[in-house]
Amino acid sequence: MEKYKNIKNFEQLIEADHGKIGTESRNSYEEKSQMFIISKMLKDARKEANITQEQLAEKTGTKKSYISRIENGKGNIQLSTLIRIFEIGLNKRIGLTFL
Where are the domains of the chain? Predict the structure, then answer.
């Protein structure tokens, strides 16, 4: 695979596969990656709290299907809802970092 010949770090690998930062392909990749991370963190935190999707939905005023979609990386989520799910539903703090 010629396009991987001179790759020396992860950023170069991502750029080879998805383009430079700011391109449509790269933006789509970054969005999907972040959604995967959020979905994994939510599922892990919910299981750690030993509650069901339905119980979490009840605590946070959402629906079980909404929690399920987020955990499966299928749903759009508003920041205020994400904060409510983690902080009220799971008793976890959220910190945001902008790079």
Answer: 7-89
- 70-81 burial: b if 16+ Cβ within 10 Å, else e: bbebeeebeeeb
Q: What is the pTM of this model?
A: 0.83
> pLDDT tens, 51-91?
999 999 999 999 999 999 999 999 788 999 999 999 999 99
CATH 2.10.260.10 describes domain 7-89: no
Residue 33 φ then ψ, to 5°: -65, -45
Give CA–CA dist 65/45, Å, rounded: 17
Tokens encoding 20: 């430079």
